[in-house]
Structure formats: structure tokens, C-alpha cells
Amino acid sequence: MCYLNNTIIAAIIGAIISVVGFLLIALSQNKQLKKNQFETTFFNLLSNTRDMVNSICGDFGNANNFRKGQAWFTLAAKNLDGEMKKHFQSQVMMQKLNSLNDNNEKIEFIKNEIKVVYSEFQVTDAGQLWHYFRFIYNVMKFVDSSNVPNKKFYFNFIQAQMSQNELIFWFYNGIHVNGMNFYKYTLQYDDFFQNFAIPDLYDFSFYIDNIQMYKSFYPNHKFR
Questions:
Q1: Which of 30, 74, 141, 216 shows the smallest number of beta carbons within 10 Å?
Q2: How many Å apart are CA 76 and CA 224, to the nearest integer?
Q3: Contact between 144 and 136 (Cβ < 8 Å)
């Protein structure tokens, strides 16, 4: 009977270790390559979103108010707040809200009315925001469907690029029927609004605790 001597066994083990080591290095390099490819695409998409923001423009029916880029978002947020004020300070709304004693009923009523105001606001120059939302949603989808680790990091990166006025529209859009897909992501990535200032939203404190109400729209979310 023949036996492998120690020298042959050592050589075989050494060869196996070399092959395994090579495969591990190749696997590691492949993972890094895939991550690099992912990040290249991600940051290119992110750059495109900023180009899109800078190209958004309009005057909301008044040529003297023409704005572009972030200046447009500032004007749009101001106009939306004005529409909220007009809607919720009408006599009919005030009577209805004052007649509701249960806070949960009041919150649900306000939430539905916000959707009405927001829908009507989209008929103005703000209608072009749908292209903006759709594009950034697809960037989010790209991140979520990838195999990259720590996806929350990339979602936070998307959010970090947004101005406070942009976040106002993301906040309202998330509770609207057209923002349902984005809303699902906020349940998964629960600190998307971590840098968002709730006081910049329309003030309902005359009827209900403002922060309590708005937090109820995103119940599992972390706000500052």
C-alpha cells in the first residue's frame, strides 16, 4: 500500500491555500469593482438631479415673479403655504375643524384636506415637479434594488442634496396618492427627514399640536 509522504501533502495543502487565497482576492476585487460601478452611476444620477433642480423655472402666472432653480422652490413653497392658509382659514374649514373634538379625527381630516390643496397646486407651475419626483424616485429605486451594503447611507446622501424647500414638497408628496412609492421608502429608511424642520410646514397649532400632527403622517420616522 502506498502513502502520500508529508512533502506531497504539504504541497497539496499549499496549492489549495493558494487557490482559495486567489479566489478570495478575486472575489474581494470583484465586490469592490461592483461597488465602484454602482457609486459611479449613483453619483452621476445625483448630479443629474441637481441639473434638473437648476433647470426648473416658472412665474406662477406673474411674469414679475419668474424664478429658476432653488429660487423657484422658495417661491413655490411660499405660494403653497399661501394656498394652505387660504384653504384652512376659510369659514367653512374653521367651523368644521372646531366641530371635531377627537384629535385623531381632526388629524385625518386635515391630512385629507392637505391632499386636496396639494393636488390643486400641481395644476400651476408646480406640475413640473412630477418629472423631478419621478427621476429622484428612480434613483432611490436604483439604490434599493442594488446589492450595495448600507443602503441607508446612499438614501441619506440623496436627502442631503436637497434644500429645506425641496423637502417640504417631498413631505407633502409622500402623503399624496402619487407619492405612495416614496412613502414606502420612508418606512424602510426612517431618517430621510432627519434634517427636516417641521416648523417650516403650514402651522395648524390653532387647531392641534403642530408637531404631533405632522409626525403622525410619518409615524416611524426620526425628526430633529
A1: 30
A2: 24
A3: no
